[in-house]
TrEMBL record:
Name this protein carries in UniProt: RWD domain-containing protein
UniProt cross-references to InterPro entries, sorted A to Z: GIR2-like (IPR040213), RWD_dom (IPR006575), UBQ-conjugating_enzyme/RWD (IPR016135)
PROSITE patterns, A to Z: RWD (PS50908)
Domain named RWD: residues: 7-110
Amino acid sequence: MSEEKEMEVEALSAIYMDHFNNISSNHVQITLLPNPGGDEPNFIGIILDIIFSVDYPNSVPKIDLIPNLGLEKVDILELQGKVLQEAENNIGMSMIFILAGLIKEWLDENNIDPDLEEEVEESSSEEAEDDDKPFDGIPVTEEAFLIWRKKFIEETKPFKKEKQLNKLTGRQLFEQDTSLNASDSKFMEEGEEASNITVASIKPKLEEVAAQVDWSLFADEEIKDVDYEEDE
């Protein structure tokens, strides 16, 4: 084992701990889970199986993805192709941790409760069945529309006539509402009372108010007497 490969294996062992299995000097396995700490449920898992080539990392090692939990080989064929492509892109450098990270990301995205997934599939299936059901209502044809239109007009005619008959003109409303006459009379009476107010009638009140004013406050100003003229 080359020094570079040996250092990589030691680093992987320290990172993955119990999930790392050093089978031989050239063969290692890493068990990958969405939640390796177990704080949340793991519904799927994959074992990354690596057999190092003689001149690794200058060539791609033998890579295999082994379904470990909730998966079949067919489920991860596409993922394995992506892992092999990523290995090709990283020739010349330590790549196992990079490949493990790619797999871990896929596991995180696909860690779905199978029971919940079945419920979603059943719901989708029921919606598809509802969409496929034939239309069982009455088809709208030109003939059916004309029949409905004629019936609708006949049913609404009496209502329109009655509404028009019950409608009163402005003059009729005025003649029937006696409160309008009363309000006009009251307005005229108030107008007459207002017209009877004269200067003479309010002069005593003004003099009473003037007697209560402290005229010393206006010592610096000239206060002219106001003459009240009697209304003729």
